[in-house]
Structure formats: structure tokens, C-alpha cells
Design a protein that fits this description.
single chain; alpha+beta; BirA Bifunctional Protein, domain 2; 5-stranded antiparallel β-sheet; 3-stranded antiparallel β-sheet; 14 helices; 11 strands; Endonuclease_MobA/VirD2
């Protein structure tokens, strides 16, 4: 079992996050502690009011929301009644047994896991100390619970990489509700992947047939920091209705995405060298062609996204490492890993492709199948013309097309007030 504890400043936000998952059908509330009612009897207003009553007791405690995730190994079939016992036992061992808390079973990953929402404000208005709680209490509780409930042992923090936090399902148009498919991919990528730019964020999304679009730079949407998400078809073209980022629950809006860039820059550092080693080994072993290079890396869990300009010429490359969940621009890894150097070393590589001839394997054959040779983020496919038209500002006023305006001549004459100016 892997336990993760996060703190925040909005208990209402944590509840809304989990309740939105319930609405989408990817989570189920299974336990309510110290609420006076069973979980089935509780309405949203009851849940919010119970926590807000405590947080208002001490307005000086700003960080008063606690979000805990308990992840079980994918091989384990943990029943709901056992999850309830484990959650209650864990909370008691870390000092939250007398606090109100809600437990949700989430089903948006390939392993069983729970989300627990609570507050660190006691009924007497004192604060539960969260400093180093992971080392001092949570780690000890985790090990004891693993033994008592015969769970797969996490063997320390390194195990967290083995209990995979998410297995993102490809968004396939027509197979599931479009909005739900987009939401599942976006939420998982935001939570699990480490990207440092909008292009890198899109590279990760495209691996699962979703794309984020800000619109042309002169559009109202772009200038107001808006964004829409769409599903991609087998040819990498947008299909179906795009959805505004603000209509999706969670942190999918632009300023939330951009807020992760700087933080992820530090987080992904340790994974750069291992990725470079894999790329170099692949270049040495595989036949020197771009197609072989892409396919070989895909088998190792690494998607390759070539970026193209409006004329279809490749100008950049992005690597999406699904093993470490890190996204790297080729140039960030070094000159040898840039698109220019790579294409030069791959003898016999295919000629530069036109933007409408980008090769993408059939969707559905593999987890990373929609990530190859996508066109530049701000280039749109034929099916996007309506969306561009709706968001774009007119380039000029209609009268401007008739010819340049003639300059008005200044009228000569005396100024008012007797020719004096103030």
C-alpha cells in the first residue's frame, strides 16, 4: 500500500473534486466518519457544513484541508468492507480517528485506491500538526496495516513508482461520452505527468488522443486565456465537439496548467539521464530510420512527437516517457537529442512530411498509439476551420479592403479663445 498526504486551503474544493468524480461515475462514497448519518444519507450540503463548522472555529489556520490517498497494488482485489476498515484504521493511527472524514473509492486507474477528505482543525479549535506526518506517523501506519491486512508491501517510498498511479485509457470518439473521456485523460495527465510548457502538456495529452487548443493568437479565446479540449481521431485530427476547460471539473484551466511548469522543472530533473540513455541505446541498436526509431521507443513506453510548422517541415521533437511520466523537449536533453540532430543521424529517414500526411498508427492498438508525428500545436486540421472562424477576430474592417485611407488635411486657422492655447 502507498499512502500520500496533501494539504490545502479549500475543504470545499476537495469535496467538489471527489463529488465531481461521483457524478462522472468514476468514484463512489463508501464511508462517513463523525457525521451522525450514514454515507448514503448525506447530501452535499451536509458534508460541506460539517467541515466548514470546524474550519471557522480558528480562522488563523489557513491550511486546513487534508487530502489523503491510499493506493493498493494492482494485483489486489480489495472489497469495499475491507477498504472501509483499512481507511478507518489508518486514520486512527495517524491521529485523525476522532475527526470527521469522508472516504471515496476511485475507479479511474488500473489499481484499487481510496481518497479521504478531512480537516486538521479539532473541535476545540486547536490544530493537528501536519509537519512530517508522512515520516513520523503515516509510514509506520502503512507498514502495520500491510501486515495486519495481508497487503502487498510497498517496501518504502521507492515502491510508489511500482504501484502505478494511473493507467490512462485512450479517448476514442463514439465509444464513451466525449466529455467524460476528455476529463479522464486531462485529469490523469495533470496529476501524473511532469511537463514544463504548453507544448509538452499537449504532447502528453496527444498520447491519449486528446488535444488542448488556445486558438489563434489574435482570437478572443487566446487573449482571455481561454482553452478548449478535443478528441483526436486516428489521423490526429480533431473530431466531435470541443469542450471549454472551465466546463471540466478540476484544474484543467490554463492558469492551473501553467502553474505546474516551474514546479515540474525540478521534479523531472532526475529522469533526464535515464531517458537519454534509452534513446542512445535505441539509436545504436535499431535500423537507421525514423519509423524504426519511433516504434522501438514506443515498445519501451516512450512516445515521440515530431513538431511541424505550417509548411509541414519538422522543427522540433518531444519525448513523452510514460515510465517516469516526464515530458522533455529534445533540445532540453541536449543538442544530440534535438530534431535536427536526430534526423541527420537517422540515415534513410523519410522525407519531411506535409502536415496532412503525418503518420499515426491505428488508434486502439496500444496505450501510446496516438502520439507520433503530430502537427504543430497552433496548426489546425481541415475539421477545425469552423472553430477558428468562431474564435478569430476579423483581420480588418470591411472598408479597409477598398484601399488605403486618405490622410485628413489639418485645417488652418486660429485656435479658439483668441488663438491662445492652455
Amino acid at each position: 500500500m502507498v499512502a500520500r498526504i496533501l494539504t490545502g486551503k479549500s475543504i470545499r474544493g476537495l469535496i467538489n473534486y471527489n463529488e465531481s468524480k461521483v457524478t462522472l461515475g468514476t468514484a463512489t462514497p463508501i464511508l462517513a466518519n463523525r457525521f451522525g448519518l450514514d454515507i448514503e444519507q448525506l447530501e452535499l450540503r451536509h458534508k460541506v457544513a460539517r467541515f466548514e463548522h470546524l474550519t471557522k472555529l480558528n480562522s488563523r489556520i489557513k491550511t486546513n484541508a487534508v487530502h489523503i490517498m491510499l493506493n493498493f497494488d494492482r494485483s489486489e482485489n480489495v472489497e469495499v468492507d475491507q477498504m472501509q476498515k483499512i481507511a478507518a484504521d489508518y486514520m486512527d493511527r495517524i491521529g485523525f480517528g476522532e475527526q470527521p472524514f469522508l472516504v471515496y473509492k476511485h475507479e479511474d486507474a488500473n489499481h484499487p485506491h481510496l481518497h479521504i477528505v478531512t480537516t486538521n482543525v479539532n473541535p476545540d479549535a486547536t490544530r493537528i500538526d501536519m509537519h512530517n506526518i508522512g515520516k513520523t506517523l503515516s509510514e509506520k501506519a502503512r507498514k502495520e496495516i500491510e501486515i495486519e491486512y495481508k497487503l502487498v508491501k510497498a517496501e518504502g517510498r521507492g515502491r510508489e513508482q511500482q504501484i502505478v498511479p494511473v493507467n490512462i485509457e485512450l479517448a476514442l470518439y463514439g465509444q464513451k461520452e466525449t466529455k467524460r473521456s476528455i476529463y479522464n485523460v486531462v485529469t490523469a495527465v495533470l496529476r501524473s505527468y511532469k511537463f514544463t510548457s504548453f507544448a509538452e502538456y499537449n504532447a502528453a495529452l496527444k498520447s491519449f488522443n486528446v488535444v488542448a487548443d488556445r486558438g489563434p493568437e489574435d482570437s478572443v479565446m487566446f487573449q482571455k486565456n481561454g482553452m478548449v479540449y478535443s478528441i483526436l481521431d486516428a489521423d490526429g485530427k480533431r473530431i466531435g465537439i470541443p469542450f471549454k476547460a472551465s466546463s471540466l471539473a478540476g484544474n484543467s484551466v490554463l492558469h492551473k496548467v501553467e502553474g505546474k511548469f516551474l514546479m515540474n522543472l525540478e521534479k523531472r530533473k532526475q529522469y533526464a539521464e535515464p531517458l537519454k540513455q534509452v534513446i542512445l541505446e535505441t539509436l545504436e541498436k535499431e535500423a537507421p530510420s525514423k519509423k524504426n526509431f519511433i516504434n522501438a521507443l514506443e515498445k519501451k513506453g516512450i512516445s515521440v512527437v515530431f513538431r511541424q510548422n505550417g509548411q509541414g517541415l519538422i522543427y522540433g521533437i518531444t519525448y513523452v516517457d510514460h515510465n517516469s511520466r516526464c515530458v522533455f523537449n529534445g533540445s532540453d536533453l541536449g543538442k544530440a537529442f534535438s530534431a535536427k540532430a536526430l534526423l541527420k543521424n537517422l540515415e534513410g529517414n523519410e522525407p519531411e512530411m506535409d502536415k496532412h500526411q503525418a503518420h499515426t498508427p491505428e488508434v486502439g492498438k496500444g496505450r501510446f498509439s496516438a502520439s507520433q508525428d503530430m502537427s504543430q500545436d497552433d496548426q489546425t486540421s481541415q475539421g477545425e476551420s469552423l472553430l477558428q472562424f468562431l474564435f478569430a477576430k476579423p483581420a480588418q474592417e470591411p472598408i479597409a479592403a477598398l484601399g488605403p485611407k486618405r490622410k485628413k488635411k489639418k485645417k488652418k486657422g486660429l485656435l479658439r479663445n483668441g488663438g491662445l492655447s492652455h
